């Protein structure tokens, strides 16, 4: 499997993310993880041909995460001058929002950590998958959207519709805040 082609198929433009390490020999892609204050805290390894059930196995698992403290992916691409931060479960979901110029971070699971302190003037919208576990993303967010189709399975047209829903939700929250 060509990992660069795989990344393109997952809507991930390697040129936008120069801190991604691709190792064709081991079949591994490594993503850096940061704390919300910008400190490098760990990495997530992704092996497209790995076993999803072996998530704690560095050599055979599809995903392997190692971190000192709670970390997120995508933080270095978030423009803090913008008011909106979309929180999603995984790297490929976050990069789809980046492709539409929407701030997004991946929490690499389905929960926003109680340890994270988002800037108070930011509106946090969580977007989950259509499963019961994604509801925990709503903890710590201003608004939660749970589409009927997983982001990874959406066509570009379906995803553009989701982006519209996210931006409409943002403005529903933001406009009353401006008038108060």
SSE pattern: HEEEEEHEEEH
CATH architecture of the largest domain: 3-Layer(aba) Sandwich
Helical fraction equals 10-25%
Portion in strands: 15-25%
In one word, what is the shape? globular
The count of strands amounts to 8
Give the C-level CATH assignment of the largest domain: Alpha Beta
Residue windows where pLDDT falls under 50 for at least 5 positions: none
What is the averaged pLDDT score?
A: 86
- Rg from Cα: 16 Å
Q: Give the neighbour order of strands across the main sheet.
A: 1-2-3-4
Largest sheet: 4 strands, antiparallel
What structural class should be given to the helix and strand makeup? alpha/beta
Distance between the termini: 54 Å
Summarize the structure.
With 180 residues, the chain is of the alpha/beta class.
Structure commentary:
- This protein is α/β, with parallel strands linked by helices and 180 residues long.
- The protein has two domains: 65 residues, no CATH class; 105 residues, Dna Topoisomerase Vi A Subunit, Chain: A, domain 2, CATH 3.40.1360.
- The protein is 22% helix and 21% strand.
- The protein is built from three helices and eight strands.
- The chain has a four-stranded antiparallel sheet with strand order 1-2-3-4, with no helix packed on it.
- The protein is globular.
- The mean pLDDT is 86.
